[in-house]
Inverse folding.
């Protein structure tokens, strides 16, 4: 006895064929239910496992400073309120489904009950409960909007200031209150702005006010463990503040689609204790390290055969597990000079850096003519743990991979398109080796 297309019940099945069709449907729907059950169990297990491992380098569930902690607390408040609402609404729904389910044939096609205008008490309480839950979420939200907006007044005098500028696809960091040194054409030391790229070094335990700028499109500046994202908008002076509780090494990432290589626009933040931070600042203020030119004896010495670099697969990861255990120590190690430095290669690379027009886009303080500002500042590039906008680890192989074919690593980037292609830059493997050696010498 099943309804026909008009909805009326029309008695038992019309013949054996219809009955068999109906039984097939039943078997199908039982199978469907079983599959749905299994799938949701699996999905639940995945979700649960996702909740058990929340400790990646970009996890917002492990805040390392007051701003990120405040934002996580707000997230939890919102979660708890919505969880309570979910449980209440879910239980009422489940109760109604069970209690008023169709128990008999007659129930399935019963007349609807008499319609009324509802229960004023229930309606008013529901409105009251909704308002209350919104207020519970709104109070900490508003409090946090003010808190994360600017360094709290009490700590303002202690705040350190930096400026971060987004470029397609890397970040420039300026230290507006520091003065670095460079050489003028006559070889005299003169002052210059202190600028770095892709790795922001900050003092730990101190609020840092970051001015956010962009030279091209909208980017978004995000250090998940230190603070939520804030956009870098053309012609708009945005800012945010962060503070790292203690020294550490943090991953950052552009969080706004900004062109074809947006996904590989990354950076790092290194927080250091006061003494180490100022030691770093002093080292950065120095002009680029220059390696003594090779002596006649060194030049005439027989040289080892040039050993080819390894080749990389497309989309191969750009870093080793050297940073998994203690990235801050890996960073410290990176500050030390390269032991296997070859003055002959460094000198050759230095010459190529000028003759292949690298100097027109990159600044190397103290090197004549190297005052370009299109690309990252390279004065102390070898002391950074990453290159190519935080994408590749800064070691010989990855440096070679980058300068050999930047377009394969970061499609559309300006070094490739406006540099190599427009200027028709050709490098032999030996040239690349010398350039790598020169860049490695810039500690
Ligand atoms: Cu810059 Cu996405």
């Amino acid at each position: 006895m099943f309804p026909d297309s008009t909805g009326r019940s029309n008695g038992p099945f019309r013949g054996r064929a219809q009955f068999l069709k109906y039984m097939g449907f039943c078997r199908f729907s039982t199978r469907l239910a079983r599959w749905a059950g299994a799938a949701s169990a699996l999905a639940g297990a995945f979700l649960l496992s996702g909740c058990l491992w929340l400790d990646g380098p970009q996890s917002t569930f492990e805040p390392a400073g007051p701003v990120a902690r405040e934002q996580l607390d707000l997230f939890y408040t919102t979660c708890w309120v919505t969880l309570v609402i979910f449980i209440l609404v879910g239980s009422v729904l489940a109760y109604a489904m069970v209690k008023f389910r169709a128990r008999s044939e007659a129930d399935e096609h019963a007349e609807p009950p008499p319609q009324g205008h509802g229960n004023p008490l229930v309606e008013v309480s529901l409105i009251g409960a909704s308002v209350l839950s919104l207020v519970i979420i709104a109070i900490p939200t508003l409090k946090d909007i003010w808190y994360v907006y600017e360094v709290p007044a009490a700590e303002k005098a202690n705040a350190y200031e930096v400026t971060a500028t987004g470029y397609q696809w890397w970040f420039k960091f300026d230290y507006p209150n520091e003065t670095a040194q460079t050489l003028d054409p006559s070889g005299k030391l003169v002052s210059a702005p202190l600028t770095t790229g892709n790795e922001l070094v900050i003092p730990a335990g101190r609020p840092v006010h970051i001015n956010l700028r962009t030279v091209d499109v909208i980017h978004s500046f995000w250090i998940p463990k230190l603070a939520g994202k804030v956009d870098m908008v053309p012609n708009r002076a945005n800012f945010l503040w962060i503070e790292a509780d203690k020294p550490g090494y943090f991953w950052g990432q552009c969080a706004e689609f900004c062109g074809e290589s947006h996904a590989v626009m990354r950076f790092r933040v290194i927080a250091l204790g006061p003494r180490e931070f100022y030691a770093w600042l002093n080292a950065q203020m120095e002009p680029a390290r220059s390696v003594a030119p090779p002596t006649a004896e060194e030049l005439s010495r027989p040289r080892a055969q040039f050993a080819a670099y390894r080749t990389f697969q497309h989309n191969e990861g750009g870093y080793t597990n050297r940073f998994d255990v203690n990235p801050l120590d890996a960073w410290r190690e990176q500050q030390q000079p390269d032991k296997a430095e070859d003055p002959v290669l460094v000198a050759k690379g230095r010459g190529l850096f000028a003759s292949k027009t690298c100097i027109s886009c990159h600044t190397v303080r103290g090197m004549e003519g190297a005052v370009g500002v299109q690309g990252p500042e390279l004065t102390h590039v070898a002391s950074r743990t990453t290159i190519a906008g935080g994408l590749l680890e800064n070691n010989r192989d990855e440096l070679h991979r980058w300068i050999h074919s930047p377009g394969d690593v970061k499609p559309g980037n300006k070094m490739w398109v406006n540099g190599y292609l427009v200027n028709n830059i050709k490098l032999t493997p030996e040239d690349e080796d010398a350039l790598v050696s020169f860049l490695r010498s810039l500690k």
Q: What stands out?
A: The chain is about 40% helix and 15% strand. The two ends are 86 Å apart (CA to CA). The pocket of dinuclear copper ion is lined by residues 166, 169, 219, 254, 256-258, 262, 265 (CB under 6 Å).
